[in-house]
Amino acid sequence: MARGRKLIEQEWRALCRVEEIEDGESKxxxxxxxxxTGLFGVxxxxxxxxxxxxxxxxxxxxNWRDDDFLTLDKIRIICASHGAEFKxxxxxxxxxxxxxxxxxxxxxxxxxxxxxxPPDAGL
Length: 123
Ligand code: FES
Hints:
binds FE2/S2 (inorganic) cluster, about 120 residues, 1 helix, 4-stranded antiparallel sheet, about 30% strand, 3-stranded antiparallel sheet
């Protein structure tokens, strides 16, 4: 177990500290080294949901402005291009041109207040 944890610390990508995302807000992250597609996270309390920043509709990034991935009321993720809205907890598109499809979820491991994702997330 301890060896497995050590492996994660060495190989998984540290995105940020949990408190760097304001509770109820979102934050974008650049692609992993060698990649083209970034990630974004949404914080709900001590939980952080991370998705690949590509809309299921046509694959473009969801945001037009840094860290801006949520509806005005902050209850859903929204794609800036054509307005598709997604559940924060599951990434399911509730309405819009890709209704019923899902954002690509990224496995998250939060340890010691740091958000880690697999090194190949978004590649
Ligand atoms: S690209 Fe996202 S809704 Fe069209």
